[in-house]
Design goal:
heterodimer, A: alpha/beta, Rossmann fold, Alpha-Beta Plaits, six-stranded mixed β-sheet, 12 helices, B: mainly alpha, two-stranded antiparallel sheet, 77% helix, globular
């Protein structure tokens, strides 16, 4: 495949961070002032990746897995310790002006907008940074603010906005210059369900219209399912999965999720306990992870022995797959 | 250049919008600046009530020098001072990330982002002081014409040295130490070079040339044949600009960006 087909290409990418251990209390402070024991942590460990232009990729992994570090290396904010990396044909850490005009980053936990001034002032500043002509700027702001339903808030100080409203403004700020790659680092974190859905819908529509490449990290599987065609799974800085979302759902085997509700808590025998039962708090509802060939047998067993009042079968939800992998990362080594 | 000016215009507007939303603080800063100017000038004037000359200069010459330095200091306070304090906050909190993404020089985005608009209100006052003491010296028209570009030269030299020192914040992370060092250097630079003894004068003229900031330009205004310190100041601007370019690029490779 031609190099131009790739938005991002990395080979044996590493990033190490150094920090020091500090004991608590007065003596700990004194001792660490004079004698520090440093810890070297490998945040990204030999990462190979190829992402085609125009795709939406979900970068998944537990906290501290290295997702944000990767995003920061992709955008040129930090420099890799070792390895090769090209983003849109550029070495990000060279921070060429042309490169910086092609990318945008939204961080759910950090704001690029100025706290004490209205969003419109921040947007106008970005208009000048990216040399966007006045007409095109006004059209974009009007269109995006209407789609995100924040047009009436453009002249309100950022600190007066809700988290969801602020995130919508952040998205607008990052899309003003029509980036070729949009990096979204937990864009829906802390938002209510409506705001999450609104933002997802906006991103999806934006991608359909503009065909830009989007790299998304999120702990909300709903974001990933709604937006991503492909997933990259990262654990302890290493890539553990890279492929289609539908294949990911089957990563633990072709399994179904069967849930049962009971009037009173039942006691499962050894046979049913092997299907990784997840109970609700009062033990009246359970969901089992069952291989496709065992579904019928398990269903009959529970119906005959425990008289459920309700049951249903569905394909393994992606949350369940992720949770299982986070609890047992060794499954990915097989 | 056009883009830089256009962005800077917006920096100014947003700084004004931000500062004017805190009215009491806005007015207090204006008052504090006025008190600072008056106490600095009156303390020098007070010394001259007891001596007739300090080094080779009489009262009017030193008062003009102090007014020249205060005019430069005023520019410093208005244009860059807040940004030094912001830099360590940006490094600690990771908001520097966004400055690094912008398609203009990150030095520009970091050190010129905040304009202290309240200080600009005092512009007529500092220039009136400078003009007053210049008139006491009966400056000629070409000496008057030299003042604005020489203030810009001194200001440029001082801030480039400060930018170089501030790069250390990428390693220290906490900015108080560096910022206090900068402020101490400002204090040292507010006096003419001849008041210092041999070794401090050499160090602060050659290695960390903050004494060239004021002494270079003012000596040249007083005596147009006295170009040594002025050329030294021009050379120092070039040398420190080159140092800054490489130092800044190196510091960015060491930037870890705190986790979110």
């Amino acid at each position: 495949m031609n190099t131009n087909t790739y938005a991002i290409k990395s080979h044996q990418l590493y990033k190490n961070f150094r920090s020091y251990k500090k004991q608590s209390g007065f003596l700990g402070s004194l001792s660490s002032f004079f004698n520090r024991s440093y810890i070297e942590k490998s945040a990204v460990d030999g990462f190979d990746l190829e992402i085609e232009r125009g795709k939406i990729i979900g970068l998944l992994g537990p906290n501290g897995a290295g997702k944000t570090t990767l995003m920061k290396m992709f955008t040129g904010i930090i420099v890799p310790s070792k390895g090769e990396l090209t983003v849109l044909g550029h070495h990000p850490w060279s921070r060429e002006t042309e490169f910086r005009k092609k990318i945008a980053l939204v961080m759910g936990q950090k704001s690029q907008l100025w706290w004490d001034i209205p969003a419109m002032d921040s947007l106008e500043l970005l208009q000048r940074y990216y040399e966007i002509d006045r007409d095109s700027f006004q059209k974009k702001v009007k269109k995006m603010s209407e789609l995100l339903q924040v047009d009436h808030l453009l002249h309100v100080q950022i600190r007066k906005l809700s988290l969801g409203e602020r995130m919508k403004m952040e998205l607008m700020a990052s899309l003003l210059h029509s980036p070729e790659i949009l990096f979204l680092d937990e864009p829906t974190i802390g938002l209510d369900l409506m705001a999450q859905e609104n933002i997802r819908k906006f991103i999806k529509e934006y991608h359909e219209r503009n065909n830009c490449t989007i790299i998304l990290t999120s702990h909300y599987m709903a974001d990933v399912q709604a937006l991503c065609e492909d997933l990259v799974l990262i654990f302890n800085g290493q890539k553990k999965y890279d492929g289609n979302i539908h294949d990911f759902e089957k990563i633990l085997g072709v399994e179904k999720n069967i849930s049962f509700s009971f009037k009173t808590p039942p006691v499962f025998d050894h046979y049913l306990n092997q299907f990784d039962p997840k109970w609700n708090e009062n033990k009246t509802n359970v969901s089992l992870r069952v291989p496709l060939e065992e579904v019928q047998k398990v269903g009959i067993n529970v119906l005959q022995n425990h008289s459920p009042i309700e049951f249903n079968t569905e394909k393994m939800p992606i949350e369940r797959v992720m949770k299982t992998l986070m609890e047992q990362p060794e499954l990915l080594d097989n | 250049m056009k883009t830089y000016l256009s962005v800077y215009k917006k920096f100014f507007e947003t700084s004004l919008a931000e500062a004017s939303s805190f009215r009491t603080s806005f007015i207090l800063i204006i008052l504090m600046d006025i008190i600072f100017y008056l106490t600095t000038l009156s303390s020098v004037s007070f010394i001259y009530d007891h001596v007739s000359t300090i080094g080779p200069w009489n009262k009017n010459q030193l008062m003009f020098f102090i007014a020249f330095m205060l005019t430069m200091d005023h520019l410093h306070m208005a244009i860059v001072s807040e940004n030094f304090w912001e830099l360590s906050v940006k490094i600690r909190t990771g908001t520097l990330d966004f400055d690094l993404l912008r398609p203009l020089s990150s030095i520009f985005s970091v050190f010129f982002r905040y304009v202290r608009t309240s200080s600009l209100i005092n512009t007529p006052l500092v220039w009136l002081m400078l003009i007053y003491y210049g008139r006491q010296l009966n400056l000629t028209w070409h000496q008057w014409l030299l003042i604005p570009p020489l203030i810009i030269l001194g200001f440029t030299l001082f801030v480039i040295i400060e930018f170089c020192l501030s790069v250390a914040m990428f390693w220290t992370i906490e900015g108080w130490g560096i910022n206090f060092l900068r402020m101490q250097l400002q204090q040292l630079a507010r006096w003419p070079h001849f008041i210092y003894s041999y070794f401090p004068r050499k160090i602060l003229t050659i290695f960390l040339p903050i004494l060239l900031v004021g002494s270079g330009p003012v000596n040249f205004i007083y005596d147009l044949s006295n170009t040594q310190l002025l050329f030294g100041a021009c050379a120092a601007v070039i040398v420190f600009a080159i140092i800054l370019k490489y130092l800044w690029a190196f510091a960015l490779t060491k930037y870890d960006s705190p986790s979110s």
